[in-house]
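Q: Convert this sequence to structure tokens.
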Amino acid sequence: MNYSEIVNKTILFVKAKLENAEGGHDWFHIERVYKNALQIADGEVCDNTVVKLGALLHDIADSKFHNGDETIGPKIAREFLESENVDEATIQHIINIIENISFKGGNTEKLFISIELNIVQDADRLDAIGAIGIARMFNYGGFKNRPLYNPKIAPKLRMSKEEYKNSEAPTLNHFYEKLLLLKDKMNTKTGKQIAQGRHQFMMTFLSQFYAEWDGEK
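A:
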């Protein structure tokens, strides 16, 4: 089986599928995660094909845009991979990545563990922090018509999966409910190293944001 050809076909499939997606979960998000995953995989012993296909298909149908239904993404991925005659073991591994990659409030235990999942999860989380993470966060907040910030509404930590999914809190709260937590949830050495710099950038941004909010700068 020619896996490089399957990867190329997967790229075309994902591009077409996400053509009209929300700006933070579009093809360019997938492309950044794919590049992150390749960089991280460079320093790990792993199945590169699973990493590539897992990164490309991890957000093929994000449950946030499908009424919280977490079964659609794995179903679309499976149907596509089966149509390309990918072997069942590889398909199941990729499905396991899709089903276990999400943050979901940060309190759910992984039901599946592999180095390939660790790599793709780190790659995805890196795109949720730093300058692009901030841009994606505010883009999604605007998409959901949420206020930028409300000092009277405190961030809610340790949310359940359902609370996290249904939260309508001001956008800035997401820093504390997810983004600032990701640095310490990285799995791989490379992921941890990259996350350090992006985390510091977010801290600098927050400092500037609050100063401007209070009219100090």
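The first helix runs from residue 3 to 17.
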